[in-house]
Amino acid sequence: MKDLSSIIISIFKRKGGEGKYTKIINEQNEEEYFDLLKIKDKDEKILICYKENKDFVLITNKRLITNNYMVDYFNIEAVIIAMQEEFKSNILNKKKFTRLKLQDFDGKNYILKLEEGKPYNGIYQILEFISLRNRENKN
């Protein structure tokens, strides 16, 4: 898979944006995320980080990394709004949603918790773009 860094950042800015806990990583702020940046591979670039308390989500140029799992982009088949999980938490307003459900090509599901609002929308659109691209490439 080619490097999608510029596309990912562009989608995030256009369809969502930064929030209180979700930031685009650049030279000015990367030191704040130094401990998390150690997780990445040497040739991997961290593009976006959501960090609140012990929860984190890293969007890189190759994969999605959370405090619970890692998913390579080429293996993401689908992303949907995790409605059941939101409703179980009594969240009914879509502007307050924070969870997405990822499904990989092996049929495994992952729940992703994000910052509500613009960050949620931006990351959802990034993952939707990647999953659509993957499904097209499988055909």
Automatic annotation (TrEMBL):
Protein known as: YokE-like PH domain-containing protein
Superkingdom to which the source organism belongs: Bacteria
